[in-house]
Amino acid sequence: MPNPVSLKVITGKSFVRRQILTNIIKKSKKQYSLQDFDTVRAGYFDNLYRKNDFSTYQSGKEIFQTKIIAVENDGKLILLTKSGEKREFYFKEVKLVK
Predict the structure, then answer these.
(1) 57, 94 contact by CB (below 8 A)
(2) Is residue 66 one of the residues assigned to a domain?
(3) Which residues are 87's β-sheet partners?
(4) 37-92 residue pLDDT tens
(5) How far apart (Å, rounded) are the C-alpha atoms in residues 93 and 60?
């Protein structure tokens, strides 16, 4: 991470990491055990960062303007360029520049 920060720095309090992890796991299990895959997937898509905005992305040395329009079941990211071209990328094949 370019600018890492800790919970202690943010809150001024100390935390037991194992307890935080245990709580995250419990809440995640509870949250996702109550929902089917399509509901979880829709929630994931609804919360994607900058999904409604054209942003600058990079794949290899190529830099282009695009926005997220879908995420497939296997995790493939579907992007739409300003010219209307659909581009598809798997994990770490593309990155947000700004």
Answers:
(1) yes
(2) yes
(3) 79
(4) 788 788 888 888 888 899 999 999 999 999 999 988 888 999 999 999 999 999 89
(5) 8
Domain with 87 in it: what CATH number?
Answer: 2.30.30
Residue 85 falls within a domain, yes or no?
yes
Q: Please check whether residue 90 lies inside any domain of the structure.
A: yes
- Cβ 75 vs Cβ 90: under 8 Å: yes
What one-letter code names the amino acid at 82?
K
Q: Per the domain annotation, does 2 fall within a domain? A: no
Cα→Cα distances 11→14, 16, 19, 32, 60, Å: 8, 14, 17, 28, 39
Provide the domain limits for residue 37: 7-43
pTM above 0.70, yes or no: no
Question: Within 10 A of 77 (CB to CB), how many other CB atoms are there?
Answer: 19
